[in-house]
Write a structure and sequence with these properties.
Blueprint: E1 4-13, E2 16-26, E3 31-36, H1 42-50, E4 57-62, E5 65-66, H2 72-78, E6 80-83, H3 95-103, H4 113-119, H5 136-148, E7 154-158, H6 166-181, E8 185-189, H7 193-199, E9 202-207, E10 210-216, H8 222-229
Parallel strand pairs: 3-8, 3-9, 6-7, 7-8
Antiparallel strand pairs: 1-2, 1-4, 4-5, 9-10
This protein binds adenosine-5'-triphosphate.
Adenosine-5'-triphosphate binds near residues 42, 43 and 44.
């Protein structure tokens, strides 16, 4: 049984159908990168998995449980954690307070404050700093740490590189590396195709709300993904009509 099984998922924003008949399965321990042009539906799909958007059709099963209509806060308790685009920290609270607050929403497990600070050592001297005064990279680390405090089975990362300097992106990915190789299941939305293809076990490309190409790292090329990204048709892989 796959950890996550999405079948024929439709998600609407009013009249606009942002996700169209998406089928996607994710195995335990896998890292999946969701790529695609602006407006392809990546964020909407990620947020639908987290329960932030309820679907108009289809189903989402997590660890064998039908969570299609379960609200976001209950999904956190089941082990689904979203690191949203823009981080959304409590800016007037300290790093530590942001982390402590997340603990109450989640499950018991190996992630504690001390372990988060071990995974993100650059946060240690910033422990008592207000989140609003952190650099972008520190804020991103805090946002990931906050999600980890809920002891997730699956971590959903939406554009962790956005707005960060190349050095800060490298730091964030170096910390993510520990999680990826430690067996955490991850779906990440990443605009940087080269980075996505370096870190992920599998690449899933969306176009206009549909998955148009899907393949394991090493089994698809950057050119194929680029073609699918821009809807240039000749890409091979799991192509959805
Ligand atoms: N809250 C919303 N209300 C209305 N339309 C929305 C909303 N969120 C997204 N959309 C629309 O849904 C479509 C998919 O957007 P989504 O943000 O999921 O795409 P994306 O692939 O994540 O793009 P980006 O890389 O720009 O974040 C777009 O046409 C977008 O304008």
């Amino acid at each position: 049984m796959s950890l996550l099984e999405i079948k024929k998922l439709d998600v609407r924003h009013g009249l606009l159908q942002a996700v169209r008949g998406v089928d996607l399965t994710v195995e335990k321990g896998e890292t999946v990168a969701l790529v695609g042009a602006n407006g392809a539906g990546k964020t909407t799909l990620l947020r639908a998995i987290a329960g932030a958007h309820l679907p108009a059709g289809g189903s989402v099963h997590f660890d064998g449980v039908d969570i299609t209509h379960i609200p976001a806060h209950s999904r956190v308790g089941l082990g689904v954690a979203l690191v949203p685009e823009g981080r959304r920290l409590f800016s007037q609270m300290t790093v530590e307070e942001n982390l402590i607050l997340a603990r109450s929403a989640g499950r018991k497990g190996p992630w504690t404050i001390d372990r988060v600070f071990e995974a993100f050592p650059n946060l240690v001297p910033r422990r008592k700093a207000k989140a609003g005064n952190l650099s972008g990279g520190e804020q991103q680390a805090t946002a990931i740490g906050r999600a980890l405090m809920t002891n997730p089975e699956i971590l959903l990362l939406d554009e962790v590189s956005l707005g960060l300097s190349p050095l800060a992106v490298d730091r964030v990915y170096a910390s993510l590396d520990t999680l990826i190789h430690g067996g955490t299941t991850i779906i990440l939305v990443e605009q940087d195709l080269r980075r996505a293809m370096r870190v992920a076990d599998r690449i899933v490309c969306m176009l206009e709300g549909k998955i148009v190409l899907e393949g394991k790292r090493g089994e698809i090329t950057r050119e194929q993904v680029s073609e699918a990204y821009f809807g240039l048709g000749s890409a091979k892989g799991r192509v959805h009509a």
